[in-house]
Amino acid sequence: MAEGSGEISLGEVEMAFRKFAVHGDTKATGKEMNGKNFVKLCKDCKVIDGKNVTSTDVDIIFSKVKVKSARVITFEQFTQAMGELATKRFKGKSQEEAVQLLYGLIAGKEPTNIGVTKVAKASAVDRLTDTSKYTGSHKERFDESGKGKGREGRADIPDTSGYVSAYKGQGSYDSKVKEDE
């Protein structure tokens, strides 16, 4: 394969294969890919187009190329799978041409969704920590600006005045004593 002829080198495809193979798996070496990541590669690289190629097709081909007892495929098996998918994806093209087009979709790609979850999490946490939406006793723990009041907002501070809690005449003792004299 001459580099200048517009053909994609297998090295570029293998790089993408390795990136997807280790995606989400800390123990993966990048030499083998599981079914989940194979489907992910096919989705992210638009091999699955929903018309000619569906995720079911991809699952079937994965099962077909892998060794019976294995749960992963090697890069060699991956290229076999791509050969089968290529003619489905690019109907009417020769096997050779279809494979090249398919490799064109894959070469240089890496798993998307890095950082996608962070965004989703942030909005959930923002919603939960928006003190203006608090109700009931929780609302009393924050001032108008949303800053916590610390101990005053949290604890029922004990009344150490010596009076029972419901006593209305608190603080009137001194004046009563003076009246009696």
Automatic annotation (TrEMBL):
GO terms for biological process: axon extension; microtubule bundle formation; microtubule polymerization; positive regulation of protein polymerization. It comes from the Eukaryota. It is found in: Cytoplasm. GO terms for molecular function: tubulin binding. It holds the Pfam family p25-alpha. The keyword Cytoplasm applies. This is Tubulin polymerization-promoting protein family member 2. It comes from Danio rerio (Zebrafish). The lineage of its organism: Eukaryota, Metazoa, Chordata, Craniata, Vertebrata. The gene is tppp2.
